[in-house]
Design a protein that fits this description.
Mss51-like_C, alpha+beta, Mitochondrial splicing suppressor 51-like C-terminal domain-containing protein
Length: 264
């Protein structure tokens, strides 16, 4: 969002604010009549996209006002069902409809690059294609924040599952070809995936390829705090696979790997 001064006309009052939704609800003295989440990305179930929304979703459901959600298509809608209807137990006012005012193919917005669309996980890329309305939750308000906290772990587990199913290929592409923002999302996805020993064991087979992709990202966009730890972790996993996990060998290999990681 671009911040802007308050604009008034006889019919409309508009103000742009750079805040997350839960920050707005904490700072605003007035309860809104309704809230609209345009193409939030919650339904992608992507950790880096959906997790920042979790406290906002809790705050919006606590307001107990009509909430309109829009998404790109059926795949994101299923993800929204999981997050909002199953985890947050949002109460549905109007279930999913095809938006009569949806974007048409010839109206493709210029704010999405080809790569970012390819990484969105949905093949349609039509803004606001589907809509539905919710209001409040079946859960007590005090439990919604707890759900938001637990949902972060759920998204991490989904990220690990996606990695095992081949999502790491798109993360590698994001590191080598994508913008800084897309590459940072890939680094965060690898970080979440590596929390699983099984995923790290499997991806360790691709240790050199992952390390080279991270080094490419750093070369294109500059240093990142996750780069070196991830390179070290995945290369150590590859060494462990190659040498059978001999602890003495791993201890000797670690300083050499750190030297290799210095570029990241």
């Amino acid at each position: 969002m671009r911040e802007g001064d308050l604009t008034r006309s006889p019919e409309v009052e508009v103000q742009g604010l750079r805040l997350q939704g839960h920050e707005f609800t904490q700072q605003s003295p007035d309860r809104p009549d309704l809230a609209v989440c345009f193409n939030s990305g919650v339904g992608t179930l992507a950790l880096t996209i959906a997790s920042p929304w979790l406290p906002t979703l809790a705050a919006l459901l606590k307001l107990d006002v009509p909430l309109l959600f829009t998404s790109f298509g059926p795949q994101e809608r299923k993800g929204e069902d999981f997050i909002l209807k199953q985890l947050f137990q949002a109460q549905v006012l109007v279930d999913v409809l095809e938006n009569p005012f949806r974007q048409m193919p010839e109206d493709r917005p210029g704010c999405y690059s080809t790569l970012e669309e390819d990484l969105s996980g949905d093949g349609e890329h039509l803004c606001n294609a589907q809509i539905w309305w919710a209001r409040g939750s079946q859960l007590p308000a005090k439990e919604l924040d707890q759900v938001a906290a637990r949902a972060v772990r759920v998204l991490e587990e989904l990220t690990q599952s996606f990695a095992m199913k081949g999502a790491h290929k798109s993360w590698l592409l994001a590191l080598t070809k994508g913008s800084r923002r897309v590459g940072e999302a890939a680094l965060e996805n690898f970080q979440a995936a590596f929390k699983s020993p099984e995923v790290l064991r499997v991806l360790g087979k691709l240790g050199r390829r992952i390390a080279e992709a991270i080094a490419c990202f750093v070369g294109r966009h500059g240093p990142h705090p996750l780069a070196r730890p991830l390179v070290e972790e995945v290369l150590l996993a590859k060494v462990k696979l190659t040498l059978g996990g001999e602890e003495s060998v791993l201890r000797e290999a670690r300083p050499q790997l750190k030297a290799i990681c210095a570029c990241a």
